[in-house]
Fold these 2 entries.
Entry 1:
Amino acid sequence: MNNRIKFIISTSILLAIALVSCTDNESTNLINEFETTPYTLVVPSNLPAPILPQDNPLTYEGIALGKALFFEKMLSKDGTVSYGSCHNQSNAFTDTDKQFSEGIEGKIGDRNSMPIFNMFYHTKGFFWDGRAKLLRDQSLGPIENPLEMGETLENVVNKLQSEFEYRKLFYNAFGDSTVTPLKMSLAMEQFMLTFVSGNSKFDKVERGEAQFTDSELRGKQLFFTEFETGGETRGADCFHCHATADFSNHEFMNNGLDSESEFKDLGRAQFTKRPTDNAKFKTPSLRNVAVTGPYMHDGRFATLEEVIEHYNSGIKESPTLDVNIHGIKDGMNLTEQEKHDLLAFLNTLTDEYYLNNEEYKEK
Ligand code: HEC
């Protein structure tokens, strides 16, 4: 036997002994070379470049861990609910048609769940009131919320730590198999940042790949035009707030749902404690809006027709009503055809490609 073969046999035996002798959690630590694979987030050409966190670079391993956690029911107290239970892909990751989401033991939350896509444009805070500054801060909130998953972070960490599969996933993503809340939130942030929506009919028209019908085109003009009483061009003024390629300025605003005496949920003010923020909520993106009903922070409107009627004739005055709405507070008097056109335009924002993308599905 020559030396080379002897060497190969002896190293193989050593390796085999090493693999057999160590218990599952230590075996991952034996791998000397910890290496992650960078993930390049690609967005369609008509969308602006994503704003990604510099301190949490996307990697295939981080995303894989985030995905496992997103669909993990152990994150809830009684093992019945995962993030995936309240955020359905076919509904742009909002809850199905529920007004308020249902957590453990059938407990009901107090706000309508928000969709998840193009999170890399949300630079002004998460949730309806913006109380989470970064996506990663947002990601662990539901675990300890008694109305959602009702579990403690400590228990979750222990549960995950006791599973070999998770120790391996954490090791692969971060080079260390110890489960921590920070690593969990970073991994979930990575997974959610990969949800891209930019292939609706609207986007295809922008890129010259499709054409609007006459009705959709009239709806688009209404959406992007100022409302001017008596003027020649009639607009519905939507673009002031539902602006930019993501159809939201991501600001907190009062769009006239209630008068002051009717304020039930103080929205942004609940977090900032400033009366000037009373009843202000984050302007939602209108991408995929056809599948995210019911609408508004409290899910008060079941259909988009009702939403359009709200802006057309239902604006209520209050001290924090947005200035951009003041112009339409006495009603826009849209014709039936105009309402229909506006709806037709909103329906062009549905992105089937994103809604069915296999990459985001639980395997
Ligand atoms: C002053 C800013 C502003 C203007 C102008 C505006 N919106 Fe909104 N819109 C908002 C805010 C803020 C919300 C969320 C309010 C809440 O839930 O309390 C919202 C919610 C919505 C929703 C519900 C989305 C969801 O996921 O629940 C739709 C649909 C919508 N707006 C469409 C329109 C249309 C169509 C127009 C034009 C006719 C328009 N908006 C004009 C600020 C505005």
Entry 2:
Amino acid sequence: MNILVLGGRGMLGRDLVTVLSGRSERHRVTAWDIEDVDIIDKYTVDRALGRDSFDVVVNCAAYTAVDKAEQDKETALAVNARGARNVAAAARAAGSRNVLLSTDYVFDGSKQGAYREGDEPCPANYYGYTKLMGERLTGEVDPDCLIIRTQWLYGAAGKNFVETMLKLAETNKTLSVVDDQQGSPTWTADLARAIALLVEGRCRGIYHVSNAGCTTWCGFARKIFETAQKEIEVVPITTEQFNAPARRPANSVFDMTRLLEDTGCAPPHWTEALGQYLTMRGRKDAR
Ligand SMILES: NC(=O)c1ccc[n+]([C@@H]2O[C@H](COP(=O)([O-])OP(=O)(O)OC[C@H]3O[C@@H](n4cnc5c(N)ncnc54)[C@H](OP(=O)(O)O)[C@@H]3O)[C@@H](O)[C@H]2O)c1
């Protein structure tokens, strides 16, 4: 397939390009980011997507600064909602299949148990609202689109929780980390493999994808230090004590039955993925 990845220089985008390029199907993969096509600019998006005949357009481009979005509302909405619609409309007009990445933050986290694709969204914060608008506008212009919700991402190509913890460990012996939010840390390389299967299987509709199992940010931090063999004391604190500008859901855990049934994909447990990531980053044995 001839596949375009938008947001191709972002954290997920880079791993997705690597994974798609290495598949046995021998896809032709093009990566564009904001320097190539600003998705807010409808005219540019129409021209760029109309020029090449892509079979699939995977939109990983997004405004991802969750706390900043509470203030910078106009930009967050422009990129995540109107930008997503621009991409979906241009892809549809060009005869390309449409894939949009979305987030657990479309849910407020009040559900007891894992979130299914059919659960009613109720965004946790403004960023979640803009991503939900992106989902809805994409679905309106392209009812055949594929929407992949994910969560708690880390990867080699971006700022993320794992790298932040390891950096803080260089200058601290004790760290306070939130312990009342449940979610599934997800390695972008594993997510990219699931996206490849969904795309190759011509799946449509909404899918939930993360690594398997769940923990809290505090549990995640402890596992990072244990795996990287760093002696750091991790003190559990509440969401209220941490006091971030944007609200976070208490529960983000996904039910991934649909992914398994439709693609056979069962993502690895998050602890296994973390071990592989840290080995790959050459950090596991660093003291
Ligand atoms: N990170 C997470 O934990 C997480 C969780 C759930 C869902 N997601 C979703 O997963 C997807 C990928 O996330 P990520 O963490 O890989 O994000 P990322 O690293 O921030 O990558 C997003 C890319 O989009 C680019 N971009 C921003 N505005 C754009 C515009 N107007 N036109 C074109 N490109 C633009 C960014 O460029 P700049 O860097 O120059 O802004 C960046 O390269 C997003 O849809 C995100 O909402 C992420």
